Amino acid sequence: MPEFVIPAPSVATIPTSNGGNFPVRRVYCIGRNYAAHAVEMGHDPSREPPFFFQKNPDNLDPSGRFPFPKHSNDVHHEVEMLIALKSGGNEITVDDALDHVWGYAPSLDMTRRDLQSVAKKAGRPWEIGKAFERSAPVGVLQSASEVGHLSEGSIDLHVNGELRQAGNLNQMIWKTPEMIAYLSRYFELAAGDVIMSGTPSGVGPVQPGDKLEARIKGLQPLQVTVT
């Protein structure tokens, strides 16, 4: 075993309902995957080819606390279903795609909307608005053998008890098998990869002290406090 010249970074993990931890390799996020959200962001919801951006594995945070980031005055919540892969490859077919799924969890794609907007207008990448520290609160990961493969059912977010976002997984423009198949054409997917599958409409700002609850039918809810 070769020696490292600096201490090796820890592996990012997501807790699972069976008591173990799921190690994370990469985080892919699909953009504008619900028609109503595409409209509210000023885009045509037609079924154009999907596009993806990435967060960093250590952006995933199961602690239940989201520190409001510095250098931003407009941070938004986006509730999403996270899909965790147990295997991968290239050129995966739609018919075979679900065979690679380990399980599912509720998650939040927290977004520094003001910084993302500046990047969009300048034609620059979105990482400054999307891939900051602890920007992806995540709940307990439950295996497909426990909950099945989730293709329909409610997905919603309450902030301080008030319903902010509400949709159904069957409203996703690109379904889970299609996302996996498309990504595998351009990336070699592998065990430990996760996909954040897009958010329904109703995204909006959070403030320190807010209490968020993300719920997806069939999964344990995710509760997060903005600190």
TrEMBL record:
Magnesium as UniProt keyword: no
Gene that specifies this protein: nagK
Presence of keyword Ribosomal protein: no
Domain Fumarylacetoacetase-like C-terminal: from-to ranges: 27-226
Alphabetized UniProt keyword annotations: Hydrolase, Metal-binding, Pyruvate
Catalytic activity, EC: 3.7.1.5
Domain of life the protein comes from: Bacteria
Name of the featured protein: Fumarylpyruvate hydrolase
InterPro entries linked: Fumarylacetoacetase-like_C (IPR011234), Fumarylacetoacetase_C_sf (IPR036663)
Pfam family for this entry, one: FAA_hydrolase
Biological source species: Cognatishimia activa
Molecular function GO labels: acetylpyruvate hydrolase activity; acylpyruvate hydrolase activity; metal ion binding
